[in-house]
């Protein structure tokens, strides 16, 4: 199986990448962005195509990993765009909701803000290859750590990350913020992997 990996999102795969990303991160994003077409529109207008790794197989996008540095991330919401999509109050509320999920990234850190593999390609090493590619890139750039967060309703992903060498740093609950936004999970675990 010949999979092509790239460190940017080619334009022709933009729509499929947004759909795959939103579907994989639905538990985190849907309570904030909603489930209607505006959520996809918000993603279309707020992604940085150079802040990701992608996997392409048989002319289809089959995997994506959003990456955040101290200079921004794959999902890079802009207030003006959010107001245009959701109105002033809706834009403010959604920007606040996205800030709940925001991770402040250090200069020597890469943060994975989402990983998605197409359902039919799971178990074929796509996700692991994306992680390997990111780790090699981090090492070349003298990055000292890779971090990510995993929600409590996804123990399978947590087990995978532990298998890949990530260690738990801290567990954070959403309370009292969960009083305002109803997330389908109660906590997230910050995990890191030291490089070099």
Average pLDDT level: 91
Query: From the helix content, strand content and strand pairing, which structural class follows?
Result: alpha+beta
Total helices: the number is 6
Calculate Rg over CA atoms: 16 Å
Q: Quick one: overall form?
A: globular
Query: In this structure, how is the largest beta sheet organized?
Result: 8 strands, mixed
SSE string, helix = H, strand = E? EHHHEEEHEHEHEE
Which spans of ≥5 residues are poorly predicted at pLDDT below 50?
A: none
Q: Into which percentage range does the β-strand content fall? A: 25-35%
What is the β-strand count?
8
Distance between the termini: 30 Å
Helical coverage, percent range: 25-40%
What does this structure look like?
This protein is α+β, with helices and mostly antiparallel strands and 196 residues long. Helix content is 38%, strand content 27%. The protein has helices at 14-24, 26-33, 37-44, 79-101, 126-140, 155-163; strands at 4-6, 52-57, 60-69, 72-73, 109-117, 145-151, 167-173, 187-194. Strands 1, 2, 3, 4, 5, 6, 7 and 8 form an eight-stranded mixed beta sheet that branches. β2 and β3 form a beta hairpin. α1 (14-24) crosses α2 (26-33) and α1 packs across α3. The radius of gyration is 16 Å and the shape is globular. The two termini are 30 Å apart. The mean pLDDT is 91.
Salient structural properties:
196 residues; alpha+beta; eight-stranded mixed sheet; 6 helices; 27% strand
């Amino acid at each position: 199986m010949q999979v092509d990996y790239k460190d940017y999102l080619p334009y022709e795969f933009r729509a499929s990448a947004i759909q795959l990303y939103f579907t994989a991160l639905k538990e985190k994003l849907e309570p904030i962005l909603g489930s209607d077409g505006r959520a996809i529109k918000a993603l279309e207008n707020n992604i940085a195509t150079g802040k990701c790794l992608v996997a392409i197989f048989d002319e289809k996008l089959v995997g994506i990993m959003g990456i955040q540095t101290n200079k921004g991330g794959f999902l890079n919401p802009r207030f003006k765009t959010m107001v245009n999509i959701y109105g002033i109050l809706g834009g403010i509320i959604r920007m606040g909701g996205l800030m709940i999920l925001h991770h402040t990234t250090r200069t020597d850190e890469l943060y994975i803000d989402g990983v998605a593999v197409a359902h039919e390609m799971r178990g074929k090493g796509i996700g692991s290859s994306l992680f390997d590619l990111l780790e090699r890139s981090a090492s070349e750039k003298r990055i000292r750590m890779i971090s990510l967060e995993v929600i409590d309703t996804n123990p399978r992903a947590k087990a995978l990350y532990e298998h890949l060498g990530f260690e738990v740093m801290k567990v954070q609950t959403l309370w009292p913020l969960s009083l305002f936004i109803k997330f389908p999970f109660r906590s997230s675990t910050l995990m890191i992997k030291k490089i070099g």
